[in-house]
Amino acid sequence: MRDLDETDLEILSLLAADARRPFSEIGERVGLSGPAVSDRITRLKESGIIEGFTVDVDRTKLRAGVPVLIDVELPVGAESADGSDALEAARERARDADAIEHVFVTAEGDLRVYARVEGLNVREWVRGLFDGVAVDDYAVTLVDEFEWTPSIEGVEFALTCAECSNTVDSEGETTRIDGEVYHFCCSSCLSRFRERYQRLEAGA
C-alpha cells in the first residue's frame, strides 16, 4: 500500500471541514479533476482511513438555553454519598445530563463542562446535578460565543498493523477478511493473523 501524500491529506482536511463538498470543488483546490478526487476518496475508504461521513449539528439552532462553562472543584480522594470516587461520580452525572455537551477533566482532577441550560436559575440546576457528590466549590461562567473546530491539519496519519501494532509503511499489505479491512506491516504478520483467524473461525 502507498503512503498518504500531501494531496490525500488536503482532501481529508477539506472533507473534515465540509463532507458534502463537491468533488469538482475539491479538485479545483488540490489540482485534480473531479473523477480523480473520487478515485482517491474511494481508495481512502477501501483502506479504512475514511470510515464514513457524519453530520456536524449546530445545537444552538436546535435547542434554546443559557450557554455556560461550569468549573467544579473536587476534593482529592473524596467519595460521593454512594461511596464511589467523587471525580468519577461527577463525570457520570455530567455524561448523563442532556444539557451538557462537552466534559473535560483538568490535571488537578477537577471537572469542567460546557452546557446549555434551560431556565434562568443556572446555579440551582448545578446544585441539583451534583447533589450527593462531594464538591468543594464550583463556578459558573456565562458564554458569549462558542466555537468548536476540530482539525486534522498537521496530523500525521499512520496505520497500525493488526497483528503486531507496528506502524504500517509503504511496504505493508492490506487485505479484506470477511468484509473487514486489515492492515499489516509485512507479509509474515498477514500470514500469522490469517492463520489465527481461520483457527478461531473453525473452532467457533
From TrEMBL:
One of its GO terms (molecular function) is DNA binding. Keywords: DNA-binding, Transcription, Transcription regulation. The keyword Magnesium does not apply. It comes from the Archaea. Residues 4-67 form the HTH asnC-type domain. PROSITE patterns: HTH_ASNC_1, HTH_ASNC_2. The keyword DNA-binding applies. InterPro entries: ArsR-like_HTH (IPR011991), AsnC-type_HTH_dom (IPR000485), HTH-Siroheme_Decarb (IPR050684), TRASH_dom (IPR011017), TRASH_HVO_1752 (IPR056526), Tscrpt_reg_AsnC-like (IPR019888), Tscrpt_reg_HTH_AsnC-type_CS (IPR019885), WH-like_DNA-bd_sf (IPR036388). Pfam families: HTH_AsnC-type, TRASH_HVO_1752_C. PANTHER family: HTH-TYPE TRANSCRIPTIONAL REGULATOR LYSM, TRANSCRIPTIONAL REGULATOR, ASNC FAMILY. This is AsnC family transcriptional regulator. It comes from Halorubrum trueperi.
